[in-house]
Amino acid sequence: MTQSPAAHSDTLGEGTILISTTVANPEKTDSPEARRYNRIRRWLGIADFVIGFGLLVVLLSTGWTARLRDLAYLGAFQVYGLAVFFYVFLLTALNKLLGFPLDYYSFRLEHRFQLSNQKLRSWARDQLKGWLVGLAIASVLVELVYWTIRSEPRFWWLIDWAVFIVLYVFFAQIAPVVLFPLFYKFKPLENEALRERLTRLSERAGTRVKGVYEWKLSEKSRKANAALAGLGATRRIILADTLLGSYTDDEIEAILAHELGHHVHRHIPKGILVHTGVTFVGFFAANQILHYAIERLHMFEQLSDFANLPLLMLVSAVLSFLLMPALNAYSRFNERQADRYSYTAIRSIAPFISGMNKLADQNLAERDPSRVVEVLFHSHPPIAKRIRAAEAWAQEQESVVGSR
Ligand SMILES: [Zn+2]
Question: Which end of the chain is less crowded, N or C, counting CB atoms within 10 A of the terminal residue's CB?
Answer without folding.
Answer: C
